[in-house]
Amino acid sequence: MCSIIGYKGQLNAAPLLVNSLKQMEYRGYDSVGIAVINNGKVIVKKGVGNVSNITDKFDLSTMPGHAGIGHTRWATHGQVTEENAHPHYGCTNNIAIVHNGVIENHHELRDELISLGHRFKSDTDSEVIAHLLEGYYTKKDIKTTTIETCRKLNGAYAFVAAFEDGRICGSRCDQPLIIGMLEGGYFISSDVLGFLKHTDRAIFLHNRDIAIIDSNALQLYDFEGNAVNRETTQVAWEVSSLDKGKYAFHTLKEIHEQPTVVEKTGIKNLGKIEEFCNILEDPRTVYITASGTSYHCALIAKYLLSSLAKIHCETIVSSEFPYILESIDDSSVLLAISQSGETADVLEAARAAKQIGSKILSIVNVPTSSLARMSDSFLEIECGPEVGVAATKSFTAQLSLIYAIVDRMCNYGLGFQANRKFLAEASREVLDQESKIQIIADKLRQARDIYVLGRSIHYPIALEGALKIKELSYIHAEGIVAGELKHGPLALIDKNTYVVIINPDDRTHCDNVVSAREIKTRGATIIGISNKPDEAYDILLKLPSIGNSILYPIIEVLPLQILAYYLALIRNIDPDYPRNLAKSVTVK
Ligand code: AGP
Q1: What DSSP letter does each residue of 399-428 carry, written as one string?
Q2: What is the mean pLDDT of residues 10-26?
């Protein structure tokens, strides 16, 4: 996904746009550009690199003008080049656009526009928007121009355009676009973080809305041209939560926020948890869907709901959801888990299930996200904005909420509610091993492969640990069901291999020790994550003992997050912005 921003008001636009892009850089960061409107001219400066590099290279912050647009890119169509960076002009430089999403019919539109004499400068799908606006803008009627342009576009998109006469307009279709309301001006942004430093008053545009910002007025229309009213929302997030504070990177700060997350998540929502449980208890089958890290939480949710709350659950990774629709019906409930609430595969799954008549429940971090707004009931994980692209605190918050829900369904027999403080303290104890884990990371810096093993409820944590190592250090890592080792993966093990085994003292412990010894005989280096030492481990990352072992996933993921973080640092990789990734994948 990309980040888009626009501003029009009394202040100089350029420094505001640059700062907004800095706040949203986690959405995509391979190239950057802004356009400002000044004296009837639309001036564009853009290049390949992150916000700081391009701002310095082109002195973006000093560009003149009280209106402008900006963009950070996560390439989907067209290489990472200066030509393909946004903003894009049409044939003339009267209009420039920035876009997030995918225009699915861009090939046909491009051919059509070329046959009308338009010349394209980039390989992007986005540039067609600029040429379409230009084609319809003959009468300087910005409303009709935008409506006609949107009618031509297929796909999920949000775009903002800057016009030579100083006006700005934007539109959205299945991609987020939000107005930030200031004294004497307006922002239009793909994310509240784009303007949270200036205002917490926002208007979340509905799908197929058009916004026009002219002098000091905001006009909203639907795609039929009817004026629409949209409510103003006060954004709950604190701007201070965007600050890294004493930490070098957002990812490390967010890792250290997790004890508080365990203590607090869900506490404010006990009433809504009640409603959630009633809906969950009802259906024949609950389908749990998510992507990436959230999917690993879905696997733990299934384990807990089916084994403790006796709810029949199926987990489906969201990108596979379209292929299992036949098994869903109007008596099913879909539980969708998503930090951002904007992941395209998750939204598509929810839309498809809703169409069939299923009830939609969701667990999100962004209460104003598209997923929350299309759900019959949603719960917030309340861990504050997560800036690091690799999910850490949001995962622990999702887990904490799932434990709180299942605890409620088991009349608090699970002991999560009662043990929040103890678990938070246990998390702090694990985080105190940070420097020890840093030393281990140094040993593993040249590792070619790292395997993470776990059984039962610990297997999804093995998957999550492997994902963090891949995302942050670019080292090949794999989560493996420990019991499957002898059925193939053992062939991968030799003296150059590193194996992490998640092995708290529960009913999986003995079998895991056997696996560890089998691996040891092949010469691999074994790192044990456990509350119980064993001679099979070359290194032990000690976990505090927890009475009810089913709660271990809450703390046993922490050493893996820290290991991945330090592997990134030691390999000179920016842990906040891993290559080729984006915080929320809003394109399929
Ligand atoms: C996790 O570290 C990644 N950022 C990614 O796998 C992420 O979990 C996935 O894209 C799902 O995002 P969501 O929770 O916002 O839907």
Answers
A1: HHHHHHHHHHHTTT-S-TGGGHHHHHHHHH
A2: 94
